[in-house]
């Protein structure tokens, strides 16, 4: 998607809560990636890494695990690490009948469907497809004789676009691409823009770039199109593309370490439920978003670490030191048709290479899951992200 910060508020939605969601994006004016949040956008703005590509379309997958983008010059699919800001080319190139200059990219809530907008020099067009393969099909014209500079879709598959020539917000028919004007945003948008829905609140945020380094971080009303200007971004001197993901409520523990996408196109994820109180001895780990019918098990260590592709794996090992494995009777699991498995953890017998140990109040353990995967039809392995749990 093409960005400059603003948010489009849903009709009837009450004022945004103080909870903030994470923003990751690319400043195409200064050629760098950045991170921020939906609250105190300017104060929380942090430059991550140089970025030489013109990335005019990016979005997190529906699960919020993997940030995808498309290089406008080559139409190559890439991912951006939300922690380091470093982009990595994946190899697929976006293909579609007549598809040319990219203007926007957005992921539908079904976890499979992606929408892409372009400008062919005359019209802006809508395409539907799969970001993991790069194959897209033409849907329809969304801005006859104009540029739909970005698109964003909400959790109910309502698609919206911002047209540059008239600074107007449109609703877009996902079946035909037919645009329906909602109303002007009240700002003079210039060049690259961007917007995305906050999955935590249902608001549509946009970074509206108004030229020569100036812009507004806003919310746009989905019934009128009008921008609710939250912050002035002139101090950033930035022309921004961005994507938003909710800060996950994992219940127990703190997620850390970025997982690589697996053969499903998304990254495996670990979470914990139950209680972090040692006296309760009631903690269940879950690994999800895995390939179907994949075998795997959980691993644990007091220390965090990072090792990319250990032993030829497709994933990242997020543990260090003495690593224990849950490979005892009944502990090796299969993800089945749901692509997930769980294990109840005995806090009095946490495995280590030299034998089990008991968790105590104040002790910290880091958990991860290893699982079978494939790459190009060749068997391999992968890992979820890591989860740090401090016991009480």
Automatic annotation (TrEMBL):
Keywords: Signal. Residues 1-21 form the signal peptide. InterPro entries: 6-blade_b-propeller_TolB-like (IPR011042). The keyword Signal applies. It comes from the Bacteria. It comes from Saltatorellus ferox. This is DUF4394 domain-containing protein.
């Amino acid at each position: 998607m093409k960005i400059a910060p603003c948010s489009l508020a849903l009709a009837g939605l009450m004022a945004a809560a103080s909870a903030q969601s994470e923003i990751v994006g690319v400043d195409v004016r200064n050629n760098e990636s950045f991170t921020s949040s939906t609250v105190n956008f300017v104060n929380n703005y942090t430059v991550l890494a140089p970025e030489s590509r013109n990335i005019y379309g990016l979005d997190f997958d529906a699960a919020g695990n993997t940030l995808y983008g498309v290089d406008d010059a080559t139409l190559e699919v890439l991912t951006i690490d939300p922690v380091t800001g470093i982009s990595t080319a994946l190899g697929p190139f976006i293909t579609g009948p007549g598809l040319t200059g990219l203007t926007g990219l957005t992921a539908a809530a079904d976890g499979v469907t992606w929408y892409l907008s372009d400008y062919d020099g005359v019209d802006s067009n809508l395409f539907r497809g799969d970001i993991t393969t790069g194959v897209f099909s033409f849907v329809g014209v969304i801005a006859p004789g104009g540029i739909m500079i970005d698109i964003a879709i909400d959790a109910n598959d309502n698609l919206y676009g911002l047209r540059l020539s008239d600074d107007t917000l449109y609703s877009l028919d996902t079946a035909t691409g037919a645009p329906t004007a909602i109303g002007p945003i009240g700002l003079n948008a210039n060049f690259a823009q961007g917007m995305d829905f906050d999955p935590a609140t249902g608001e549509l945020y946009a970074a509206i770039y108004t030229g020569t380094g100036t812009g507004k971080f806003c919310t746009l009303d989905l019934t009128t199109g009008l921008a609710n200007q939250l912050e002035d971004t002139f101090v950033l001197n930035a022309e921004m593309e961005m994507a938003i993901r909710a800060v996950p409520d994992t219940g127990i523990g703190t997620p850390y370490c970025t997982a690589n996408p697996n053969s499903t196109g998304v990254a495996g994820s670990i979470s914990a439920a139950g209680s972090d109180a040692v006296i309760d001895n009631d903690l269940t780990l879950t690994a999800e978003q895995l390939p179907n019918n994949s075998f795997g098990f959980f691993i644990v260590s007091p220390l965090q670490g990072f090792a990319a592709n250990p032993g030829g794996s497709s994933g990242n090992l997020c543990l260090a030191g003495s690593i224990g494995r849950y490979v005892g009777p009944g502990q090796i699991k299969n993800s089945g048709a749901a692509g997930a498995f769980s294990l109840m953890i005995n806090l009095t017998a946490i495995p280590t290479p030299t034998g089990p140990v008991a968790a105590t109040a104040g002790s910290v353990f880091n958990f991860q899951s290893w699982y079978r995967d494939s790459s190009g039809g060749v068997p391999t392995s992968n890992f979820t992200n890591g989860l740090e749990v401090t016991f009480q």
